[in-house]
Amino acid sequence: MYQISVLIVVGIVSVSLPGVLNISQPEVADENGETYVAGAEPKKTVVRGRGRPKPDGLRYRTRLYPALEKETPRLAGPPLARVYQYLLHLRRQHTDLVDAGEVKKAKKLQRRISEFERRFRYPVPTPQNVDPRVHAVGFYSAGQKPVRVRVTDNATPVVLVLTAYESVTWIIDACDDAQIDFVICTGYHKQIVDGLPQGVPVFSYSYDDRSHEYAYAYGSERAKWENLEDSVRTWTGGLDVSTVAGSYSATKELYVVGPDDPDWRVQMLDCDIQ
Fold this sequence. Notes:
Radius of gyration: 38 Å
Order of helices and strands: HEEHHHEEEEEEEHEEH
Strand content: 15-25%
Strand order of the largest sheet: 9-7-5-3-10
Shape: globular
Structural class: alpha/beta
Largest sheet: 5 strands, parallel
């Protein structure tokens, strides 16, 4: 009987001892202002909200953008330069995907290119050579007659530059497989262009248009074209002029921009070996 009484007393003491100790221990506050008994574990704050709280070190998953978007270069210059350089970027990306055997990605990008080109000019297939050539024709004056220019360069996209000091009417004849991306007309007086395929954009810069960006050049000496070439690089986002044609006055009935002209072929060979 004595042993049973001792066990009952020990049990009661063991049960009530923690409560006695807790009452006797002072309370302390943590850094968040929460109070707890000294020596006990701090209370864990329950975060209520959508989803479970993320442990330390875990980062939210971010969207992985396609490589094309991440590699898009920062484009500078006027709007025309930015738009055209972006189109060239898409074409080069398409070529890289085809070379890498990424058929599905290449087809998807081709649809994007076609839509971009439709808004910029008119639908055409992606050219085999994606790097464009800039060809320029220039005179001081053409008198009262128009100047006829035939574009036969079909190996690359073409940026056509037409320039003169006096006002000139340019009549363009492009062969069926030539791709003119756009035309730049620049001179002291306003230039007029006719005969282009439907949808080809024409951008004009002249004193008559109150443009401070106009330039003009003429003749076969390349040194006389330096100021105009600087302007062309600004307008196109850095493209160099590949060939030039013209003289002080327009004397020929037809000026050819393409391999049909011997001087044009020599200039292209010179560009390739530089």
